[in-house]
Structures are given as C-alpha cells and as structure tokens.
C-alpha cells in the first residue's frame, strides 16, 4: 500500500471484464480506474464500475473512478460494409459533410470522404491540413466552395469507418460538451465517479462550463482537463489554474504538434502543474508494446522513468490494461520503475532543484512548505495531515517530500480523490469536533495502517482550531511515546489488548463520579483502586492506578467486560493530566502518549 508514490491510472476494457483481473490490478498497484466513454454503453460501463467497487470493497483498498468523456470530436463517416479503404499518395480527395460513404479514388473519380462537422466547408481554408486516424492519413486543403472541400492525399494509408479527425491551422470551436457528453457526465454523477476527464479542453472557460454542469448535478467530481491540442497547450496556465488536474494526452497532442516537440510540451505542462499545485497525469503509449508482449522495450522504460523525473503525479495505461495480453505485468512494471526512480538520490535532488513556486503570501502554502522542510530536517517517518477536503495533502505533495504524506479524512470520496496525488496515501478516521481528537485519530489511523510505528517521529500539519479554514499549525510528535510503565495489568477480553481515551484524574471516587462524562472515551487515573470506584469503572475504557488495586484482577472483567487496566504505575498520578489522550497496553503494561 505504501510502495509507489507515483500513482497509476488503468483503463478498463474487455481485458478487465473479470473480478480476478481487477483484483490483481489493484494488488499490483492500480490507484485509479479509467472508463473511456468514447466506447461502450452506460450499461456496460455500470457493470465495469460496479465490478471495481465490489472488488475494491472486498480487498479493503479504495480505488478512484475516472470517467473520460468522448468530447468535441470530429470523425469520418462509414465505409461501405465497414471495409478498409486504401488512399494513395497524390489522390484527389473530396471531403463532404453529408452521409457519403468513404470511397477510394478511381481513374476518373476522386476519393470521397465525409466528416461529422457540418461547418467544415465554410470554415476551412486552403493551406489547412486534415489528419485522419491519429495522422495516419494527411490531407492538404486546396480549395473549398462552401459545400465540398477539395484535398490532396500527402501519403498512402488504409482507413476504416468512424476514424478521428484533427484539423491543423483551424480551431473548430465545437461545444466542450455534446449532448452525449452531458448524458455521460450525468450518468457518472449517478455512479458517484471521482473524476471527469474532459477531452479536448482548449480554454479555461470550458472547464468552468463543465463545473457549472457538475454543480447542477450536485456532483463533487474533480475535473481533469485533457490537453490534446495546440490551443490547450498555449492556454495551459489558465486551464491548470481552473481545473482540478491535467492529463497530457500525448496521442492527439502528438498529431497536432510536430512529434519532436512532445517531450518539451510534456515538461512544460508538468512544470506549470507543479507550480500551481495541480496533479498531472502523463498518458498514451507508456508501455504500448506490452499490449502484445510480456516485457516492455528499453525505450518505454526510459520514457516512464523520464516522466517521473519530470515530476508527473501519475502515469496512465490505456490499451495495455483495456485490451492487452499482459495487464498485470504492465502495472507491475510501472511500480518497479516508479519505486526505482523515487528512491534514487538523483530524483529528490532534481525535484528540489527544478521546483519553483510563488507562495503568493498564501498561509496554507507557506505552512505546507514549512511542514515539508521540518519533516526533512527532523528526519520524520511521515507527514500526517488530518483533512476534510484534501487540500493540505495536495499542497504538501507539490514539494515531493521523501516521507509518505498520510492524509486522514472522514469522507470516502475525498479519500478516493487523493489517490491521484503524488506521495499521498489517504486513510480514514471518524469525524470529530475538536482539534486534539482529530490529531489523535489521525495518528491512530496511521498506526493501525502500519504506516508508522511506536517511537517514530512524525510531522503533523493541520488547522487549529478544527474550524480553521486554513492550515496554520505544524507539530513534531512521537508515535506512542512511553509515558508510564506498570508492574501489573491485564485485559478483560482476550481480543482487546489496548484501551485509548482521555485521562479522568481523580483523587477520590466521589470526584471521579462527578467528573465522569460517560462518553465511553475516558481512562480513569487514581492513586488506589477500591470498590468505591466500581460505578465509575462500568463507564470507562480503562484504568491506571498509581499504587495498588484492591479489586482482584478476576473481578474486573465482571465489572466491565471491555476494561483494560494497569496498576503499580508509580508516578502516573503526577505525570499524567486530565484531558490527555493516552493508550493503555494491558499486555505490555505501558501507557503511551496519544491514541493508538
């Protein structure tokens, strides 16, 4: 669970139509399941989403759900009988916007091709280019009469039905959400998806439009803007500032831009996202050869490693897991590469040297930076942040600390959404009403998950008091700092070795009874335990006795079948104060600081 800090997004598809495959993907290291709504029906996607939810619940490992929209696509029409049509270099190609079937050129007739964008003949101009099927076929526009666009094929290619189209030199200006997209997003909101990956985002205003639509659906899904065209790249800073995250969709972006510019575009987008504190996913052909082969190429391994060195939060698999032969091996490969890079001295050196962020006088950002620096200087085992929204953990993630960021939240969706952020490991804790309980619950969750251990030094970043709207407090704490040891002790039940709660310090049974809150969250502390304390013992979790217990050990379970006790804990009455959060270990005969 606490291995790779770079997160892994896996696309669902025919290969994952089995609980066992999904289970193995989760165990291998999948964090987010992606559902591509360019294909499939709502019924098939619901089956796939339910499968991920079911397997995730059985494994007790949260997985976020990402709905990837079809977006404002332009596609070719059908070919006759869905055949593959051959186009040859130099062919005359007439492009229309009716339902003409795609046909190849003959000796006397030009090739025919229809596109789905009805305004194409009026908007396109000579000199523009039309790219079909991810650039497999390139057409040069020579003239248009307002009805038919006359082109020349720049290369030879075989083209089937319904292929995607990119226009070079022209922005189509299609609505960011088609009616199908709106129906898909509404369906996703009903399924409680965690992310909407919005395709072909060109402007920040388009993100705002999607957010307004999500608000109308009462959905708290985060928006991931996919950068797939030159306009999106040119407007990346504004888009990233408005969206909740960015996906570098290198497939379509590689069609729009000269191929040699893709690495530079990737680095630029990642740098902007880190500066703004937004998670970024690097996608497309990460391990493409593993669709057919059990081992990746050396070039693919280097590509993945370099994306992580660039500072990406997540890497995404598409066909590798959706319809590949080796989905589990692909995820395991990503994990191995990620861990190798993340634990290298070169990685953290590069992260520190390459990161520049304008704190803008923002208190939460300043405190997050100081929390990162403090954890580094005191060699903390973990950074822990109790959070209601996840924002604190996201900000700390920007600095790429060597410690895991343990984000403890009472909200299941916040927990899932944090699975996309680099180095953040979300945990669950019940919601409480005061800051001290919030801190202690966070430590207990981290301890129970095995993320921290007794005597570990941790750095806590949180808002104080609990109603604070910003992160304003940093604390350096020890997990389970030993406060007191006893000579005698025990547990009323064999399956309850520990009791945690707040100290109720009383000199007399009467005082104890008066102070008792009866909220089942108290630990009685007294000098000598006598039978007069029995009414109090019925309502507490545990008891610490500085001196002797005059109630026989075999009687205590009859008074309270869940009681944990410690006696002959010399000095406890003076060392412990009322209200302190402690944990009694009835087997080790130790009182620890905090809730474990």
What does this structure look like?
There is one protein chain. Strands 1-2-3-13-14-15-16-17 form an eight-stranded parallel barrel, surrounded by eight helices. An eight-stranded mixed beta sheet has the order 23-30-29-25-26-27-28-24. It is an alpha/beta fold and 596 residues long. It is 33% helix and 24% strand. The protein folds into four domains: 7-71 and 176-344, TIM Barrel, CATH 3.20.20; 74-168, PK beta-barrel domain-like (M1 Pyruvate Kinase, Domain 3, Beta Barrel), CATH 2.40.33; 357-478, Pyruvate kinase, C-terminal domain (Pyruvate Kinase, Chain: A, domain 1), CATH 3.40.1380.20; 482-593, Glucose Oxidase, domain 1, CATH 3.50.30.
Key structural traits:
4 domains, Pyruvate Kinase, Chain: A, domain 1, eight-stranded parallel barrel, M1 Pyruvate Kinase, Domain 3, eight-stranded mixed sheet, elongated
Brief digest:
By secondary structure, this protein is an alpha/beta fold. It has 4 domains: 7-71 and 176-344, TIM Barrel (Alpha-Beta Barrel), CATH 3.20.20.60; 74-168, PK beta-barrel domain-like (M1 Pyruvate Kinase, Domain 3); 357-478, Pyruvate kinase, C-terminal domain (Pyruvate Kinase, Chain: A, domain 1); 482-593, Phosphohistidine domain (Glucose Oxidase, domain 1, 3-Layer(bba) Sandwich), CATH 3.50.30.10.
């Amino acid at each position: 669970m606490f291995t790779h800090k770079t997160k892994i997004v896996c696309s669902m598809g025919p290969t994952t139509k089995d609980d066992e495959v999904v289970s193995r993907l989760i165990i291998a290291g999948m964090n987010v399941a992606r559902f591509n709504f360019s294909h499939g029906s709502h019924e098939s996607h619901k089956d796939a989403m339910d499968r991920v939810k079911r397997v995730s619940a059985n494994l007790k490992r949260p997985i976020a759900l990402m709905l990837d929209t079809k977006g404002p696509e332009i596609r070719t029409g059908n070919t006759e009988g869905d055949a593959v049509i051959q186009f040859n270099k130099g062919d005359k190609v007439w492009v229309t916007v009716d339902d003409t079937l795609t046909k190849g050129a003959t000796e006397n007739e030009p090739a025919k091709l229809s596109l789905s964008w009805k305004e194409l003949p009026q908007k396109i101009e000579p000199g523009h280019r039309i790219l079909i099927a991810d650039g497999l076929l390139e057409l040069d526009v020579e003239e248009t009469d307002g009805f038919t666009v006359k082109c020349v094929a720049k290369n030879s290619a075989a083209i089937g039905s319904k292929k995607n189209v990119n226009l070079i030199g022209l922005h189509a200006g299609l609505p960011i959400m088609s009616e199908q997209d709106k129906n898909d997003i509404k369906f996703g909101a009903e399924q409680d998806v965690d992310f909407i990956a919005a395709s072909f985002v060109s402007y920040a205003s388009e993100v705002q439009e999607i957010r307004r639509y999500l608000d109308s659906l009462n959905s708290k899904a985060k928006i991931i803007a996919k950068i797939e065209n030159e306009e999106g790249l040119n407007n990346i800073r504004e888009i990233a500032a408005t969206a909740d995250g960015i996906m570098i969709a290198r497939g379509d972006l590689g069609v729009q831009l000269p191929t040699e510019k893709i690495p530079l575009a990737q680095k630029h987008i990642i740098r902007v996202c880190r500066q703004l504190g937004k998670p970024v996913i690097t996608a497309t052909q990460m391990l493409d050869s593993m669709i057919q082969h059990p081992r990746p190429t050396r070039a693919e391994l280097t590509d993945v490693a370099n994306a992580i060195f660039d500072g990406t939060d997540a890497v995404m698999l598409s066909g590798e897991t959706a319809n590949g032969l080796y989905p589990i091996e692909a995820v395991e490969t990503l994990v191995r590469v990620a861990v190798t890079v993340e634990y290298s001295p070169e990685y953290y050196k590069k992260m520190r040297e390459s990161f520049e962020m304008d704190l803008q006088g923002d208190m939460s950002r300043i405190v997050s930076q100081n929390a990162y620096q403090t954890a580094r200087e005191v060699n903390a085992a973990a950074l822990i942040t109790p959070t209601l929204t996840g924002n604190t953990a996201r900000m700390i993630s920007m600095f790429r600390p060597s410690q895991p960021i343990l984000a403890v939240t009472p909200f299941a969706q916040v927990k899932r959404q944090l699975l996309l952020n680099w180095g953040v490991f979300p945990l669950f804790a019940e919601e409480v009403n005061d800051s001290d309980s919030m801190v202690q619950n966070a430590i207990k969750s981290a301890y129970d998950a095995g993320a921290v251990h007794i005597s570990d030094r941790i750095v806590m970043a949180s808002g104080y008091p609990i109603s604070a709207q910003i992160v304003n407090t940093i604390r350096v704490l020890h997990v389970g700092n030993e406060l007191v040891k006893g000579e005698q002790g025990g547990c009323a039940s064999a399956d309850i070795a520990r009791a945690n709660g707040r100290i109720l310090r009383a000199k007399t049974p009467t005082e104890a009874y008066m102070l008792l809150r009866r909220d089942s969250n108290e630990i009685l502390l007294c000098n000598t335990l006598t039978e007069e304390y029995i009414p109090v013992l019925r309502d507490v979790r545990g008891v610490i006795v500085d001196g002797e217990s005059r109630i026989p050990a075999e009687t205590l379970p009859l008074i309270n079948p869940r009681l944990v006790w410690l006696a002959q804990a010399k000095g406890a009455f003076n060392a412990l104060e009322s209200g302190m959060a402690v944990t009694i270990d009835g087997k080790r005969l130790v009182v620890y600081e905090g809730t474990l």
